[in-house]
Amino acid sequence: MLRIFESPRWRRRIVICSCLIAPIVPLVLLGIYFSDPGDPGDANGPLVSGGSSYVQPTPSRFTPAEQRQVHTVLKGFISTAVVRHNVAKAWNLSGPSLKEGVSRKEWNHGDIPVVPYPAANRGLGEWSYVEYSFTDSVGLEVFLFPKPGSGWSAMTADVEVVKGKDNHWRVNYWMPKKFHGPPAVAAGAKAKPKPQRKAAGKRTVTTRSAAPDEAVEPPRASRLWWAVPIGLLGMIVFAPITIAVVFWYRNRRAEREYYRSTGRV
Known about the structure:
By secondary structure, the chain is of the alpha+beta class. The protein has helices at 8-21, 24-34, 64-82, 96-99, 104-108, 227-262, and strands at 129-133, 137-144, 154-163, 169-180, 195-196, 205-206.
């Protein structure tokens, strides 16, 4: 092994490989050091100086009395703002986030940041389950049925209801989350399968249209994209080492053949 350093050619190759590897090692170490995600409980990160004005909400029990109040507010909001019927009444049922940047005049004309939906008068004000419950806010998942013949499917919406300083609850966030099942059609518009007879005495053939599929969630982003930077980093780090090993093996073999031919082995 020490004979390698006696060869000027090998010493030149070692210097070239060292120059290629030397700048890579600190980059890898820096990447490993700064890839630390930090403390998940510290949202500000370690480099943010000074205090934060954000105060963590206090978890609170969603009492039956609060549930009745929220049910009333949510029912009124859906039957006005969401259905787009007498929208002006929804102004007093909406929180500050929904009314931000919207004048009362625009609101009364229906120019509101609420996605319309033809909700049927079925279970209005009820929710599927409670996502979170704090002292002054509640997160709900609301399931709505469409009106017959509207052409809409059943819908799930994420809703936040907040309590103001006057102790009145208001809808502060409304966003459709997912549609379920086929669209609602009128009773008279439902297609009925009709038998088709080709000839007397032959079997009756019945045709039926397939029901629409349920809403399909968009595909999630794959994590395989990590393979690209890892593969590039591996090529940068291991390619010079592989080349150096190949050169060393070839020269070692040539050296053995040389000594064998001269009888010095």
